[in-house]
Amino acid sequence: MTDRYASFVQTGAGRALVKRLGLPDPPRLRRHTPGDPLVPGPVLLGSSAGGRIAEPAGKILTAAGVELADPVAAHDADRRFAALVYDASGITDSAGLRQLYDFFHPQARSLLPSGRVIVLGTPPAECGSPREATAQRALEGLTRSIGKEFGLGVTAQLVYVTREGDAGTPVSLESTLRFLLSGRSAYVSGQVVRVGTGSAVAPADWDRPLSGQVVLVTGAARGIGAALAKVLARDGAQVVALDIPAAGDELAAVANEIGGSAVQLDLTAPDAPARLAEHLASRHGRVDVVVHNAGITRDKTLGRMDADRWDSVIDVNLSSQERINDVLLERDLIPAGGRIVSVSSIAGIAGNRGQTNYATSKAGVIGLVDSLSPVLRERGISLNAVAPGFIETRLTARIPLTIREAGRRMNSMAQGGLPVDVAETIGWLSWPASGAVSGNVVRVCGQSLLGA
């Protein structure tokens, strides 16, 4: 689906009109291409007094070939940076928040287009005093506001890094820094990511971080699912693409394109989890990553919704995930180091008129992450979810024009996202190097104005 308005504003006449009338100005976003450098320029790394994360973060960036700017360069009004990374973990009370102003105020106009802002902090629950927890919680307001202020496709994120265990080592933080700095995170902004404990294995090649992994993608025949299959295969995975028999031709085309395999299966069938488990066991002996992407909509306001619409959406979008997880875990087909990633939706956070069934199912996915991730952590398996906002697909193309345009413009990027944006985010959560990232729900919504 083409965003004609976004294309128009890139023309000379369009830019003049946008400036004169104050219309939304969708920037060109920097997206990932294999072989790209991690960032297109130097990174300015700063730290609060007593910060504990700047040193390992600096080592990660240097090893990744990133040029760390001399702090003196920060005072050069003509110097431009690809990213600003600030370790705020040393801030222990509200007075210390002034350090944030001192770092970011002079740099508010120093970022290149599609620049990145990352603030590193301590989870409030791990803070040593109420005052420290208060100050660390305040960081969310800073990053979300920066994401709305800086413009030009700039994204801003807060990363809480645990004090416990091995998460202070570079490898545990590396995958998150690499994702958030790169073009993979083009449509992710205003998010809070928690890096905890867990096994993290750095890949031999960061351009193929899923090399050797067996990955199951449900709902893979079209849209986000097809983009997922392609991105995961590009990153080295052996992809098992699954969809309903009615989508068999499209599914086969996707599987053939990426050199993967296709499984035609209705996930609502009573024997579907067992049949899927038997297929994975016989063909691969395991599944390293399970991506629950399959989903449907059956929209009606609640007062006019028949029971079949309610039941089918809950069954496909939520209950089928629970049933598949139960069987795969019971049969030990997901090994230690495995990953489960579920697709939720911004509707599950903010709700949506005419989608009570859909919003309920997608909020349930978030509940699944909250309740099951601590249990799976004991088995060395991570569980996360992504919550897409307005993504340009055939489904959103059917939305009435005025509602569609509102969905596109009501975010910090003033445009809809692409299926690849969701795929890249799921790819990061699937990496073996992302083992310390679990229990997160990451919105892929361009920092939508809807919801939290």
From TrEMBL:
Gene3D superfamilies: NAD(P)-binding Rossmann-like Domain
Domain (Ketoreductase) ranges: 213-389
Disordered: annotated span: 22-41
SUPFAM superfamilies: NAD(P)-binding Rossmann-fold domains
PROSITE patterns, per database record: ADH_SHORT
Family: Belongs to the short-chain dehydrogenases/reductases (SDR) family.
Highest taxon in the source lineage: Bacteria
Recorded GO MF terms: oxidoreductase activity, acting on the CH-OH group of donors, NAD or NADP as acceptor
Organism whose genome encodes this protein: Micromonospora tulbaghiae
InterPro entries: KR_dom, NAD(P)-bd_dom_sf, Sc_DH/Rdtase_CS, SDR_fam
Protein name: 3-oxoacyl-ACP reductase
